[in-house]
Amino acid sequence: MKINQFANQLIPGCQPLTELAHLRLLATDELETCQPKELWQRLLWRVDCNGTTDAQHELRLHDYLATPSMALDEWLANDQPITDEIFARVALQLLDFEPALDFSLADPLTDAQGMNLQLPTYELWNQAAVARGFYQLLLTRTKHGQTWLDYLTGQGLLTWTYQLPAKQKPLLVNGQPIACFDPHQFIYEVVYVEMDHDTDFDGQADLIKVEIMRPADSNHGLKVPTVFTASPYNQGTNDRWGEIITHDVNQPLTHLAPDHQASQETKFTNPQRCQAVTGHAQVATETFSNTPGYTLNNYLAPRGYAIVYAAGIGTKDSDGLQTCGSPEQTESMKVVVEWLHGIRHAYTDRTSGITIKASWCNGNVAMTGRSYLGTLSTAVATTGVPGLKAIISEAAISSWYDYYRENGLVMAPMGFQGEDADVLAAETFSRTKRPADYQRITAINQKYLAQMTKAQDRASGQYNDFWRQRDYLPHVKQIKCDVMMVHGLNDWNVKPSNVKHLYDRLQSLPGDHKLILHQGEHIYINAFPSLDFSEMVNLWLAQKLWEVDNHADQLLPNLIVQDNVKAQTWTAYDHWNAPAHQVALGEEIIQFSDRQPETQYQQWCKDPGQWAKALLGQTNRFSYSIPLTALQSDYYQGTPHLSLTVQSSLDHGMISAYLVDRGAERRLTISPTMIERQGIQLGYHWQTDDLRDFKLQAQPSDYKMISFGHANLQNPHDPEFAIDLAAQQWVTVEFDLQPIFHHLANHHHLELVIFGTDYQMSLRGNENITYQVDLSKSSLTLPF
C-alpha cells in the first residue's frame, strides 16, 4: 500500500503545540512538568474516545506493541527512552496497519517509508518532539482512507467543540477546519430564487427551488461559506422516458450537402412579470428531510460549510423546461450563487411574495460535483458571477459538442449508444413528479423537445448554433474564480478532451488552477486510501471560502497524475503537454471493408464489447494495425494528432482510430474495487462513505486502448463545414485523439488501429464501404 498526502505539509506559520492545546490534548504546563514518556501516555489516553477511566485507557495501551515483544503499557512503565523505531511501530498500529501483514515489527521505519508515510523522526525525543510528533501523527492517514484525526473525530473526539460559541469557530488544524459543527443540529430549509427568464412560456419569471443544509451556529452570528452543487438529477429522474426516446443508431451514415443547415432552437422570452414582493422574512418556512447527497459535501458539512443543492429549470418544484446545458440552464444555477452572494431575490415559497436573504452566508461560494453537476459548475464559472470563488469540477463537460458529437459525426458517450441532448433533457425533466404540474406543462414540453430534437441535428454531426449555445470554451476567459479539475484518463463517457480543452485555456488566465488526473473511468475519487483528496479540498476551500491564509494555492501541486503502471502512485507534475513528435506510419496503401455478415453485425450491435475484442484481437479484416515499435519513450503526455489520407468507395464515410498499449501486464482496473462498504465515518454519528481504490487486475491482459478519435470524411478540417465528397475521392482528414498521460511499461509498445465504424460509439449502418488509406501521406503526432 502507498499513501499519498499532498495536504499534509505543515503550512507556514502553523503552530503545532498551540493547536494541540486548542484541541484540549496538551495542557500549557505539560512540556515543563512531564517527562517525554509520561507526556506520550497522556496524549494517548486523551484520544481514547471509548474509555472513560484510567484502567480502561491502560487496557487499551496493552493492545499495542512498543517493541516486537513488549506491550506499550509495559514499555511505558520502564526506563527505556523513546526512539524513532518505537514511535513508528506504535504509530503504525494506531493508524490500523497490522504487524506482519502491512509492516515488519523489526523494521517499521523502512516499511513506513515504503508506504510513503512521513512519520516523524528526531535525534532526541524530548517533550517538544513527542508533542510535535503526535501532532504530525494526527495529520497522517490511516490504512482506511482518512487522517487519524478524522478517524478519531468519527469516534467522538471533538464532540466537546459543538458547544463552543459560534464566534470561536471554525477551529483550524494545519490550516483546515475540523469537524466542530454538530451535524445533528443542522438547519434544513428551502427557498425559491427568481430568474430573469421565462422558459416555460407562462409569462412569469421562473422560480428555482434551493435546498439548504447549514450549521446551527450560522443562526448565532457566524457567517459561513457555501458549497453549492447544481444537480439536475437532484429532484428525481425519468429513466423510462429516456429509454423510450433513445435514438436508433443502427442506421447508415449519409452523404451531407455542403449547405446543410439544422433547424433553429426554440428562443426563450423574457418574463412578462415577476412575483410581486409583499414582505420580508428572517426565517424560512419550508424544510426538507433528505436530498441525494455527494459524500464530499457530507465530509465538508461538519467543518462549517453550508451545503446547497438545486436542480434548476425543468425539475420538480421549480419552473421552466429542461434544456440540457443551455445558457438558460446555466442562468438557473447562476442565480443561486447571486442569491447566496446577496444580490438577488429569493422567496420563502412559490406564491406569497415574501422574500428572504441568505443572511447566514459570508458571500463566498464554491461549486462541486461530477459529470452534469461539474459541467454546470464550469458553465456558471464562465459567466464570471460575483461571489463564486472556486469550483471543483469532476468529469465535467466543457463543450456538449465534444460529448455528443465528434468531428462531424454523431457520437455517443461510450455505454450510452443512442443518447443525445433531448434524451438527457427528458430523463431529467422531473416536473413529471408533480402530476398536476406536469399536466399543465405537457404540451409545451413536448413541443420544445420536438424542436430540440431537430435543432441538435442527428441528420448530421455538424457543429451548429445548438451546440454553440452549449459550448463553454469560448467564455473561459470570463472565469474569475479558482478552478480545481478532476478527470479520469479512462473516462469514455465525458472524454478527457473536455478537461484538456479547459485546462489549456486556463493556463493563460490569472488565478489558482489545479488538475488531478486519475486512472479511472467516470467516477468520484474522494474515498481512496491512496490519495488525500478530501483533505486537499478542505485545505483549498479554507483558503478560497473561509479566507484562511494557509498557502493552499502554493502547497498543493497544480497537476497531480496517478500512474497507470505503479499502483497507488500519485505524482506532481509541472504541465500536461510534452513536445510533439511526428511518427511515420508506412509507405503502402492499406485497405479494409466496413461490411460485416448480417449475423455478425446483429451480434455486435447487441454486444459491442465483442466487437471491441475482435477489433483489438488483431484477427479481423475490418481494420489495420500499425505497431509503433520504433518509439523510445516511457511517458506520453498531451494530445495525439492524426493526419490520414483516406478514400471511401462511397460519397461518404467515417474513419476511426484507436491508440493501443500492447503488452501482457496486470493493469490497473478502471473501476475502483470496494475495500470496505461504509468504511469511512464523515463525522460523529453522521454520514459514511465506501472505502474504494484501484487494484491491479487478477490476471494479465494483452492490450489496453488508451486513446481514440473519429472523423467524418466530409469534415476533414472543421466540424462546422462539410465538403462535397465524391466516391473514391482522396481526402486528408486531420483530427485529434483523446489526450493521454500514459506510462508505457517496459517491453510494451504502442499500436495504431485504423478502422471505420465504432460499434460502441458511432452510427453503425453496416454499409458496403471499402476504405483505403495512403500511409505514405499520413502521420501520427505523439507528445513525449
From TrEMBL:
Residues 1-157 form the X-Prolyl dipeptidyl aminopeptidase PepX N-terminal domain. Its EC number is 3.4.14.11. One of its GO terms (molecular function) is dipeptidyl-peptidase activity. InterPro entries: AB_hydrolase_fold, Galactose-bd-like_sf, Pept_S15_Xpro, PepX_N_dom, PepX_N_dom_sf, Xaa-Pro-like_dom, Xaa-Pro_dipept_C. It catalyses: Hydrolyzes Xaa-Pro-|- bonds to release unblocked, N-terminal dipeptides from substrates including Ala-Pro-|-p-nitroanilide and (sequentially) Tyr-Pro-|-Phe-Pro-|-Gly-Pro-|-Ile. Residues 538-781 form the Xaa-Pro dipeptidyl-peptidase C-terminal domain. Pfam families: Peptidase_S15, PepX_C, PepX_N. Homodimer. Belongs to the peptidase S15 family. Removes N-terminal dipeptides sequentially from polypeptides having unsubstituted N-termini provided that the penultimate residue is proline. This is Xaa-Pro dipeptidyl-peptidase.
